[in-house]
Amino acid sequence: MLRKLYYHPILLITFLFNCKAQSHQRIGGPFENAEFMYIGMPKHIPSIDTSPGWMEEGQKLLITGTIYKKDGVTPAPNVIVYYYQTDTKGAYANRKYLDQKVARHGYIRSWVKSDENGKYAIYTVRPAAYPNRDDPAHIHPSIKEPNDINEYYIDAFVFDDDPLLTSEKRKAMENRGGSGVLRLLQKGDLQIAEHNIILGLNIPNYPVANNKQEASSGRNIGEDVISFTPYHAWGPDRGTKTCPICKYGRYQGVLYFVGKNTNWEEVSKWLIYLERESFERQKYLKVYFVYGNELNESNHKLITHLENIGRTLNLQKIALTFVPSFSGKASEIDMNKINPEVENTFIIYKQSNIVAKFINLTPTQKNLSLFSKKLDDTKGDFFHINR
């Protein structure tokens, strides 16, 4: 027999109101002056944009990259990026022709739309910081996807070489859409920043594509690797605690993490493959094996074990390192969110930014080919330009 359910009218109204409120939560949370994005927006928006600031006297700047869906892999076409910035004096300068409703954004404001491959490019002038303040110089970007998701802002673009961008400010970043840090390359008089955007990443209330539970380990594609100091038992920095990202962050790097469930036979296969890749790519690839000592082995035993692996495999390029634990705060590895329970975590980074990630990847020939292709595909268009 079915039991009849009775609801008090006030409770029922409250319940329905709460459900409606939850279903209409704004994606991205509060966004002051979100409507400014649409004021003056042209009907046709190209994938390559030159801002009004390009004609200013100052450092010319190109920001270019790919916009990806939340998986960090699938390119996202037809995504609008609205941006505004200060001029070379640190002011949001006004102009007579500017719609005064958006005067607080200044005249250096514009739009760019990703092409069919998710690519975009912005030519502008490098902004100056606000006068007499300690905020780093920055550019404000916001996103409108080609769907019914409302516009939302992502992390401001800031500059890695800006002395105002302190460690504390880096750690406080939300990584909305990925890291906002621009790492600059120099080509003649032009500074170039390769910068990818990940839709929905760290955006509150963003729709979840599916509820499939998969193993999780490491920071997200699009975020920066956080510097940490493992002990080097084998390799160029043998006998020291050296941060891989700080010392070798310019080109591509691979961080190969293993923890509680290490399969040492597979480790050897991976190391042989990665050593070969290191020789082929020379200075453009650095590889670090990082063991999380979750089983509390003695340092002497662990160092001896890693030395034996390095010697047996005749490793000349790869660094074999370890940290006391992936949750350890002393080495600061904890901020990279490595899961010690998975068999392995591979992070591929370029200029300190995560461009690919694999979890529980076995060293089959198919996966080795996949890994090599991923290294090739994530080089970018300006890989060989100096900083």
Provide the fold topology.
Elements: H1 9-23, E1 48-50, E2 60-68, E3 80-85, E4 109-113, E5 119-125, E6 138-144, E7 152-153, E8 157-159, H2 167-171, E9 181-182, E10 184-187, E11 190-194, E12 197-198, E13 231-234, H3 244-247, E14 252-258, H4 264-281, E15 285-292, H5 299-312, E16 319-323, E17 345-350, E18 353-359, H6 365-377
Parallel strand pairs: 1-5, 2-11, 2-12, 8-9, 14-15, 15-16
Antiparallel strand pairs: 2-5, 3-4, 3-6, 6-7, 6-8, 10-11, 13-16, 14-17, 17-18
Protein described:
- This protein has 387 residues and is α/β, with parallel strands linked by helices.
- It has two domains: 34-198, Protocatechuate 3,4-Dioxygenase, subunit A (Sandwich); 231-377, Glutaredoxin.
- Helix content is 18%, strand content 24%.
- It has helices spanning 9-23, 167-171, 244-247, 264-281, 299-312, 365-377; strands spanning 48-50, 60-68, 80-85, 109-113, 119-125, 138-144, 152-153, 157-159, 181-182, 184-187, 190-194, 197-198, 231-234, 252-258, 285-292, 319-323, 345-350, 353-359.
- The strands form three sheets. Strands 1, 2, 5, 10, 11 and 12 form a six-stranded mixed sheet that branches. Strands 3, 4, 6, 7, 8 and 9 form a six-stranded mixed sheet that branches.
- It starts with 8 loop residues before the first helix and ends in a 10-residue tail after the last helix.
